[in-house]
TrEMBL record, chain A:
<protein>
    <submittedName>
        <fullName>Uncharacterized protein</fullName>
    </submittedName>
</protein>
<keyword id="KW-0812">Transmembrane</keyword>
<keyword id="KW-1133">Transmembrane helix</keyword>
<feature type="transmembrane region" description="Helical">
    <location>
        <begin position="138"/>
        <end position="159"/>
    </location>
</feature>
<keyword id="KW-0472">Membrane</keyword>
<feature type="transmembrane region" description="Helical">
    <location>
        <begin position="52"/>
        <end position="69"/>
    </location>
</feature>
<feature type="transmembrane region" description="Helical">
    <location>
        <begin position="21"/>
        <end position="40"/>
    </location>
</feature>
UniProtKB/TrEMBL annotation, chain B:
<dbReference type="InterPro" id="IPR000524">
    <property type="entry name" value="Tscrpt_reg_HTH_GntR"/>
</dbReference>
<keyword id="KW-0238">DNA-binding</keyword>
<feature type="domain" description="HTH gntR-type">
    <location>
        <begin position="5"/>
        <end position="73"/>
    </location>
</feature>
<dbReference type="GO" id="GO:0003677">
    <property type="term" value="F:DNA binding"/>
</dbReference>
<dbReference type="InterPro" id="IPR036388">
    <property type="entry name" value="WH-like_DNA-bd_sf"/>
</dbReference>
<keyword id="KW-0804">Transcription</keyword>
<dbReference type="Pfam" id="PF00392">
    <property type="entry name" value="GntR"/>
</dbReference>
TrEMBL record, chain C:
<dbReference type="GO" id="GO:0005524">
    <property type="term" value="F:ATP binding"/>
</dbReference>
<dbReference type="InterPro" id="IPR027417">
    <property type="entry name" value="P-loop_NTPase"/>
</dbReference>
<keyword id="KW-0067">ATP-binding</keyword>
<keyword id="KW-0547">Nucleotide-binding</keyword>
<dbReference type="InterPro" id="IPR003593">
    <property type="entry name" value="AAA+_ATPase"/>
</dbReference>
<keyword id="KW-0813">Transport</keyword>
<dbReference type="InterPro" id="IPR051782">
    <property type="entry name" value="ABC_Transporter_VariousFunc"/>
</dbReference>
Amino acid sequence: MNRALTVARLQFVGWRSVVGWPWGILALSFSINLALFSAMNENDDFEPTTGGLMSIYVVMFVASINAITQEFPFALGLGVSRRSFYLGNVIHFAGQAISYAAVLYLLAVIEEATDGWGVNLRFFGVPFPLVEHPVLRFLAFAIPFLLLGFIGIAIALVFKRWGVNGLLMLSTVALAAIGGLVVLATWRGWWSAIGGWFADQPGWALLVGWPALLTLLLAGLSYLTIRRATP
Amino acid sequence: MEDGRPIFLQIAELLENSILDGTLAEESQVPSTNELAAFHRINPATAAKGVNKLVDDGTLYKKRGIGMFVSPGARAKLRGRRRDEFARQYVRPLLTEARKLGIEPAELKSMIDTWEEGR
Amino acid sequence: MSAVVTVTELTKRYRGVTALDGVSFSLAEHRIHGLLGRNGAGKTTLMQILTAQNFATSGEVSVFGQHPYENEQVLSRISFIKESQTYPSHLRVTHVLRAARLVYPGWDEELAQRLVDVFQLPRGRNVRKLSRGMLSALGIVVGLASRAPLTFFDEPYLGLDAVARQLFYDHLLADYAEHPRTIVLSTHLIDEVSDLIEHVLLIDQGRLLLDVEAEALRGQVVTVSGPVAAVDEFTRTGTELHRASLGGTARATVRGDFGPAAHDRARSLGLDLEASSLQDIVVRLTTSHNGHAAGSTAAADKEAVR
């Protein structure tokens, strides 16, 4: 466990770029939106959200791929075990997800209090007004970080262990599975039932519950994959 | 280290040479194995082996916690031993080569005298 | 002396290629071992398996008495510096050193800083912008300053000039003398390291050809030249590794237990005798079994040395 904490700190030695990239890009996206909204006249249509918040999640996704392609060979070269490396990464990403979500939550609160920064800009607000409980709203910021992080780790690990062919195989299988399900759903006329199911789900389940479950599944599969990965 | 002989022998011989020519006086301290290793760019264990060879034959002795020193009387002893080796190492090949060229021992002696005078 | 590494019948096969073929040996504590062999002989694969970065197909590996795979106790005592080491692209030289300091229990920061100055590494430069030689120097700094009880250097000098390589050897020796540890130096610049290493492992095509003390090897292989009949007579006392002849004169490289008496014997046969350097020995051994040498299979070679 100590060793895993060491790895988490190891990931942070170049902390300026670790923190700088996601927030720098988010700040850029935010200032562009802010400039646009101030230039525009009073907006009649109420935009649910600009989508600019996605940028920080995309950066984190890229960072998680880097964790496997770049940090993994480096850490193993320094005599770190795969287990410690993996645990250290979980700590590293969970730590970032929690602290970043806290900041985003705070910014969303400010956004609401200032009527969208005075220009009716909804940048940080969670798109689903269904999530009301403060803890759930916080988790709605945090969980997607983890989900994207583990999707990145899983994809990079498939590449690490099975190369380009592995990735192609994975994409093919995923496409075939999704396509098959779509065909099946259309053929059996399940779409209204599926739509109903989604509609019945509370907002927290769609933004927090199901993503958390998927994250756990990916985390488990990734751990099994990294155990036999070579740098 | 140059030739193909074991390095520890070469180290021992270098130390012997220093003792013979007086660079290392009797009762004076010998460089440590680490110093020898760094200077000659050799493995410290090899340097130690060379030094230990001289300890075993009594040329050097160990002062606990301080280091290695040249034994009293080491120089005279070394000189005696080197003289014996001299015949084998130098005189014999000299005679072998001379024989190849048809130089008689008497002629060889006069050649040595001529060289000695010309110095 | 206790063994830090024990390898038994280690075999590694990649699809259709046998990188290591039943290799067995052990490494004694606190020595500098030379792991020699041509490119692609299996040296790197061996070190990757010993450091649990790669997996063996069969055979046993024990490091500090345990299997290294996922073994923190073992891994934290190993430093493996390889030519192909990559660094996360956002790191600077100081970041890499800070990372190493976090990880290695025996890290000596003062030594690391001194070596950075010795090799004139630009502390603030991004690793992507380092020259090949600077990257090698960075690896060397990490390898030496980590003071790991078991340190592997896998061809650590790519892009380094002769002066920088000599600096590496000097600092390696000096630090090793003060802080004895087990070092494995994999290289094909054999002449440069032949005086540094105490024990030689020679690998060729995945097989272990030599596992012998460097000093024992010195003088064991000699080259004699002179009349064919005399050369024939002399080579009867050893294993002939190589021969070239011109008219009635021959030159043969022979391996055997040659003492001062052998020199005298050569002389009395009218032969010139020359001891072979470690580099010559390695070249002869790794090329001789391609055909023309008499009876020098790997097994026979190993026996002759012992």
